[in-house]
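ingest -> validate -> predict -> emit
validate: passed (alphabet ok, no gaps, 122 aa)
predict: started
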Amino acid sequence: MTRPVESANTAAEAIRALGHATFPRAGGLVFPSDAYDVLSALAVLAARLPQTLAQVGGFLDAECEHDRVRVVDGEHAGDPVAAVTTCAVHLETAGNAAHRLREALDAAAAALCWAAATDPAP
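emit:
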């Protein structure tokens, strides 16, 4: 079974690699359809984020409810409920942002759905 931290690190590394692959002159993007495919895949990624964020929040809520969270320092020192509640607010904001990101990526991909490369000059 893959651990969540490993999966998150793999996803972060994949996005870094994608950044390199789409760098101008990297050779990764050759045709307009390549851009369409990348944008479509990123839209799927964004669509999947809210579920993961909600599950992380649910985990933290349950841990806090069962008194298994302690905050030893920082802004919420001694107040795990405040820490988890603040985290939940930010996770909801992130989930909403992911929905908007998916919509924007879908729209960007849709703009390219009929784009094609021109024929090379003879």
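The helical segments are 4-21, 32-65, 80-111.
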